[in-house]
């Protein structure tokens, strides 16, 4: 099949690589424009663009998906199928109608659960035991298209959004190839989504990363893991922002008020929650480097009884 691929983030790279290795032909790769990032605001290419260049594929980076020039360019490929994975923009009808067949999308949840921009993060934040991927036929509404295939993946106790995303991306890439084979053989079946069971996973904002120590240790741990790598979980100590890079649930019984430093051990900083405690193993003070607890405690004069919380 002749395919135009739409994708931007790292989550989409395994799918692009799988298509490139398959018998199908990737005619072009559509990705978002390069963006300025970091303190120096240097232009940075999307992960999909870097992969496409490495694979010697034709790259398109439209600023306006609806411009007549871009629409005509897409039509000129005469593609059978558009494949969309973590592209970051909603495709309108004038784009969806271009391929000879239709457009399919790989989504990072088992739909209709977690429609929206951040399904992987919210699955971990909410303490789910399983996540998964879904390939659907796209329509004009966000993540509401008919389901073609889906696959569940277990969420491990140590998973961050980043580690789970990697496994889901690999699972999704394999699922995409299966779906395209079914489409090619005309054996594909469509399942309507049950909108009454739909839940939503809104895009995360920087302020979502703030840790609420008044929750229990299990919820705090899920929050920290679900915020990795962005926006990152953080708290404040003496009005200074501290990003929590690595943490776990403390298995022994400890008491203290939520957010209180109740112990400083070799392997971590013990912080009380509403129920139970968290071990902070690595952290990063604002405008500083990532460090272990020994270095942090020595440099910032941390002692038991200090309180972590909001500014």
From TrEMBL:
(6S)-5,6,7,8-tetrahydrofolate binds at residues 109-112. It is an enzyme of class 2 (transferase). Its EC number is 2.1.2.9. Residues 203-301 form the Formyl transferase C-terminal domain. The keyword Protein biosynthesis applies. Residues 1-180 form the Formyl transferase N-terminal domain. Keywords: Protein biosynthesis, Transferase. Belongs to the Fmt family. Attaches a formyl group to the free amino group of methionyl-tRNA(fMet). The formyl group appears to play a dual role in the initiator identity of N-formylmethionyl-tRNA by promoting its recognition by IF2 and preventing the misappropriation of this tRNA by the elongation apparatus. This is Methionyl-tRNA formyltransferase. It comes from Candidatus Taenaricola geysiri. The gene is fmt.
């Amino acid at each position: 099949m002749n395919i135009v691929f739409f994708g931007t983030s790292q989550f989409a790279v395994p799918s692009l690589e799988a298509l490139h290795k398959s018998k199908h032909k990737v005619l072009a790769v559509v990705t978002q424009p390069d963006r300025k990032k970091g303190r120096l605001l240097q232009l940075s290419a999307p992960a999909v663009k870097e992969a496409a260049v490495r694979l010697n594929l034709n790259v398109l980076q439209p600023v306006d998906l609806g411009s007549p020039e871009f629409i005509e360019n897409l039509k000129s490929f005469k593609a059978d199928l558009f494949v969309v994975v973590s592209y970051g923009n909603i495709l309108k009808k004038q784009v969806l109608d271009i391929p000879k067949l239709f457009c399919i999308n790989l989504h990072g949840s088992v739909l209709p659960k977690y429609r929206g921009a951040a399904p992987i993060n919210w699955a971990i934040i909410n303490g789910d035991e399983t996540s998964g991927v879904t390939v659907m036929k796209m329509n004009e509404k966000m993540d509401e298209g008919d389901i073609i295939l889906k696959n569940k993946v277990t969420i491990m106790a140590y998973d961050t959004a980043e580690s789970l995303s990697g496994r889901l991306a690999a699972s999704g890439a394999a699922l995409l190839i299966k779906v395209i084979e079914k489409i090619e053989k005309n054996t594909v079946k469509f399942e309507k989504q049950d909108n009454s069971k739909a839940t939503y996973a809104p895009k995360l904002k920087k302020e979502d990363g703030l840790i609420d120590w008044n929750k229990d240790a299990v919820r705090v741990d899920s929050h920290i893991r679900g915020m990795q790598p962005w926006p990152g979980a953080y708290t404040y100590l003496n009005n200074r922002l501290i990003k929590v890079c690595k943490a776990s649930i403390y298995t022994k019984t400890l008491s203290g008020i939520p957010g209180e430093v109740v112990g400083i051990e070799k392997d971590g900083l013990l912080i009380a929650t509403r129920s139970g405690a968290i071990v902070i193993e690595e952290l990063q003070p604002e405008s500083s480097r990532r460090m272990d607890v020994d270095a942090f405690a020595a440099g910032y004069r941390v002692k038991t009884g200090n309180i972590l919380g909001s500014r």
